[in-house]
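At this stage, I put together a protein sequence along with its fold in token form, as given directly below:
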Amino acid sequence: MRLIHLMVIGALIFAAAYVYRIKMESTARVEKVLQLRAEIREQREAIAVLRSEWAKLDAPLRLQGLVERHLPLKPLNATQYDSLKNLPERPPNFARSGNPDPIGSMIDAIDAATQDDTPTGSVPQQPEDAQ
């Protein structure tokens, strides 16, 4: 009989320790949740401060003052526009129609048009009889 009483007392002590451990874990988790909520609140406040600072820095009147102070720009007048008839002529089209590589043909045509007898263009070629 005493053995049964000792086993029951041991089971009660084990159950009490298990319940105490569960209580401590739940308390630690509640503290962690409260800590995370406080951090979230701090981050939201920091975001609100940054948004207000951005709104202040992005204010059109402030930007206009900075532009006038630091950039040598002049206001645009309607008389600065010109009509399309005063545009220069379109450059010649060097690409041949139907060519599978129009860019390559343009480069070849430009090279052929600008090619002269001087290799670099800086030193004129000496006549052959002068050598």
Q: What stands out?
A: The helical segments are 2-57, 60-70, 102-114.
